[in-house]
Write a structure and sequence with these properties.
This protein is an alpha+beta fold. It has a single domain, classed as Peptide methionine sulfoxide reductase (Metal Binding Protein, Guanine Nucleotide Exchange Factor, Chain A). It contains 2 helices and 9 strands. The strands form 2 sheets. A 6-stranded antiparallel beta sheet has the order 3-4-8-7-6-5. It has a 3-stranded antiparallel beta sheet with strand order 2-1-9, with no helix packed on it. A hairpin with a 6-residue loop joins β5 and β6. The longest helix is centred in the first third of the chain and has 9 residues.
Length: 144
Amino acid sequence: MPVLGACGSGSAEAKGYPVAFSDAEWRKRLSPVQYQILRHRNTEPPGSSPLLGEHRKGTFLCVADDNPLYDSATKFESGTGWPSFWKPLPGAIGTSIDLDAGIPRTEVHCARCGGHLGHVFDDGPPPTGKRYCMNGAALKFRPA
């Protein structure tokens, strides 16, 4: 699966996160696509994630550290080509401002490892109005 550089090429910083490894260790633990997305803030092509079609009850986890991120009940079909959610689990994510696309966007990262997950936008459904647009390669699914 090719990886797009739409989110920038800066390396994800692991210092200060509960789960931290050297760059060499992250390369061993993650597939090349996962490494580029989680550690270098790249983006997978739209429509490429098998998780787009995942509709079972369960939890979406960070593929890097198994941190539970989203309950499947908050997943919705956004039509964007990326798995989208309207609310993360409490304490699961962190955010920062991303200026790499030339406009300010809110980047979403795993609260445990700092890995880049995607971005959050203000065009989601009720009750939050948020669209957490995630890279499927940065997630894995655990059925209930």
